[in-house]
Amino acid sequence: MGLLLSVNIGRPRPNPWKRLPATGIDKRPVTGPVRVSAPGPKGDGAVGLAGDRAHDVKHHGGADQAVYAYAREDLDHWGRELGRTFANGFFGENLTTTGIDVNASLIGERWRIGVRGPLLEVSCPRIPCATFAGWLGESGWLRRFTDAALPGPYLRVIEPGEISAGDPVEVVRRPDHEVTVALSFRAFTTEPELLPLLTGLDALPREDRDAIRRRLDREAK
């Protein structure tokens, strides 16, 4: 069983890296319970945590990217690699966890956070973008992050509830396949030959499933 170290909410700030008015990548730990509920479809910036939102509404937010989790262990890995100290939330994650290998979680895996908290489902890996690269300010960051295949998962909200730092994170369902967050990330980025392993996974976002099908159809011709 894992532990929720912090719940992080974004502070809007200018986004020169995508020429957008703002970004919510600057997430900071908050105290007290935070309501988690399912947002609507992608397009209006709604996300799963009350008080947070996505500003790049074309690429972020919506039901399949309602919540983003990253492990304290992986933040510490990058801290050692880069000679920096990263606070909880610095990678733009809503949930900073410990004691659970978030990249080994399976697509469709379900987590219960807290005794009566929300039920979340792993939907897809985070794909790094220009905002993330600019925010980190490290030369070659996107390639380095991609090669490490430690993306952290997005989760959708199956049942709403409230969460607080210190809540347990329990894996309550593991689907009958072997497609992890790390494997799916590699398939989407550096190892497209793995894409056939992702077919038939209904827990993947529809837009991802459609993109995989189109690509495989093109390659079959």
Write up this protein.
With 221 residues, the protein is of the alpha+beta class. The strands form 3 sheets. Strands 1-7-6-10-9-8-12 form a 7-stranded mixed barrel. Strand 2 and strand 3 form a beta hairpin. It is globular. The mean pLDDT is 96.
Q: What would you call the shape? A: globular
Q: Kindly state the number of beta strands.
A: 12
Largest sheet: 7 strands, mixed, barrel
The chain-level mean pLDDT equals 96
Q: Looking at the chains present, what oligomeric state does this protein adopt?
A: single chain
- The unreliable regions are none
Widest sheet: strand order? 1-7-6-10-9-8-12
Output the number of helix runs. Answer: 5
Order of helices and strands: EEEEEEHEEEHHEEEHH
Helix content: 10-25%
Q: By helix and strand content, what is the structural category?
A: alpha+beta
Radius of gyration: 17 Å
For the terminal residues, how far apart are their CA atoms?
46 Å
Strand content: 25-35%
